[in-house]
Amino acid sequence: MLIRRINQVKQQQMSMTGAEGVRMRLMIGREDGAATFAMRQFEVEPGGHTPLHQHNYEHEVLVVEGSGQIVDSGDVVSSREIGVGDVIFIPANQVHQFRNESNKPFMFMCLVPTHFDCGQGEPLPTPGS
After folding, report:
1. What pLDDT, on a 0 to 100 scale, did the predictor assign at position 15?
2. 3 state SS of 98
3. pTM summary value
4. Catalytic (active site) residue 118
């Protein structure tokens, strides 16, 4: 069993192209022995955003502080206001982005698989897991 506090894990600046003002903490991942899921905590500073991106694995999100917008770039680009207590399911391959247009930090927890099928016949480690 592993128990740790969020503030015990060092934040890392998100370096993915298109990210602005986003930091991540890998709370539980492969190095902790998690074979199936990784838990990550993201903090988006005011005016910041994750990249508009997609990946071939689902993920689940829980907003724990502040408020923001989730952008869905399907057939029509749309955004929706989200806040503390909201739970979001993002299916595989859905284009999405998190934005913080408020003047306070926006924080959410995100669960992803530790490995994903990259189409090469062998699962690869999920980035940030």
Report:
1. 86
2. strand
3. 0.88
4. no
